[in-house]
């Protein structure tokens, strides 16, 4: 049986009070606006918008703890890695104003590892952190604040074909279903004496020892997908346009949200076209020796 994310009605939640179609349209506009700029001054208002919806969504730390820990670890790791290596930012700047240079006290094959911290790397890493965190925060709201029963009718209401809308519905439910099956299989194997904590050996040996977990979960996923296909074929899915039991109706707040999203996207696209979306480095951080050219 398909399961869903930890959705539950939350009275007073701003996101849940909106039509899911309006929220998806606004999210798409927010996504376009975010990817169009690297200017920290333009990214901070987008982050403020994301934080507003997060704080008014009535989500609890208990429900979303794992998601936030994953997001925090992912964003911080890649931001620090970008700061230390400078990877990814070379297409946004050609010169670097060096703040400090750190030479590590050891050598590798005759080479001394050197970490260069420049104002460009620092601002690029900070912009990346704000950018990715804002996008991830808005994405978290989708599985936790949109009723799983509305996935299909939402995507159909956005003009997508029935097959694509239903495919998106199944995709949104696949990840939590797969996680549920994995947890049940792991509990069953532990009850039979399988000790996951004592896996030893190299990478290939550990993967081979995970077979009692991976094989049953994979087979169960394939069998479940075949059951869904058979059930859809028996109901003649795809022969004619399907009808939906639930009907969504736009309200005034939904139209306002869509209008705000479109204006936000158009404004940031315009900023990008006139050159305001590039990486911004304050003048105070440019008073350092220049590296490169």
Shape: flat
Number of separate structural domains: 1
Number of helices: 9
Termini separation (Å)? 60 Å
SSE order: HHHEEHHHHHHE
Q: List the uncertain runs.
A: none
Tally of strands = 3
What does this structure look like?
The chain is mainly α and 293 residues long. The protein has one domain (20-292). 59% of the residues lie in helices and 6% in strands. The chain is built from nine helices and three strands; from the N terminus they run H-H-H-E-E-H-H-H-H-H-H-E. It has a three-stranded antiparallel β-sheet.
Q: How would you describe this structure in keywords?
A:
single chain; 293 residues; mainly alpha; three-stranded antiparallel beta sheet; 3 strands; 6% strand
Break the fold down into its secondary structure elements and pairings.
Elements: H1 20-35, H2 40-55, H3 61-85, E1 95-103, E2 114-118, H4 119-145, H5 151-157, H6 162-191, H7 203-209, H8 211-234, H9 252-273, E3 290-292
Antiparallel strand pairs: 1-2, 1-3
Provide a compact summary of the structure:
This protein is mainly alpha-helical. It contains nine helices and three strands; from the N terminus they run αααββααααααβ. Helices cover 59% and strands 6% of the residues.
């Amino acid at each position: 049986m398909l399961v869903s994310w930890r959705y539950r009605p939350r009275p007073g939640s701003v996101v849940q009070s909106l039509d899911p179609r309006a929220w998806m349209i606004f999210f798409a506009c927010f996504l376009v606006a975010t990817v169009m700029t690297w200017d920290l001054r333009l990214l901070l208002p987008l982050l403020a918008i994301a934080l507003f919806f997060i704080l008014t969504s009535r989500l609890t730390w208990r429900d979303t703890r794992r998601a936030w820990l994953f997001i925090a670890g992912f964003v911080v790791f890649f931001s620090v890695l970008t700061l230390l290596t400078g990877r990814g930012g070379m297409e946004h700047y050609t010169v670097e104003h060096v703040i400090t240079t750190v030479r590590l006290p050891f050598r590798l094959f005759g080479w001394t590892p050197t970490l260069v911290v420049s104002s460009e790397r620092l601002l690029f890493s900070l912009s990346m952190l704000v950018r990715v965190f804002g996008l991830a925060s808005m994405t978290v709201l989708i599985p936790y604040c949109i009723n799983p029963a509305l996935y299909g009718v939402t995507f159909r209401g956005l003009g997508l074909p029935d097959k694509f809308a239903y495919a998106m519905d199944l995709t949104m439910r696949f990840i939590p279903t797969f996680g549920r099956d994995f947890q049940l299989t792991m509990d069953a194997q532990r009850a039979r004496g399988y000790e996951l904590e004592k896996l030893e050996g190299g990478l290939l040996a550990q993967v081979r020892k995970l077979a009692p977990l991976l094989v049953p979960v994979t087979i169960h996923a394939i069998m479940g997908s075949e059951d869904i296909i058979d059930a859809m074929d028996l109901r003649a899915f795809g022969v004619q346009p399907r009808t939906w039991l639930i009907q969504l109706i736009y309200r005034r707040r939904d139209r306002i949200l869509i209008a705000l999203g479109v204006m936000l996207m158009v404004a940031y696209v315009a900023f990008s076209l006139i050159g305001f979306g590039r990486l911004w480095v304050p003048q105070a951080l440019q008073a350092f020796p220049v590296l490169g050219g």
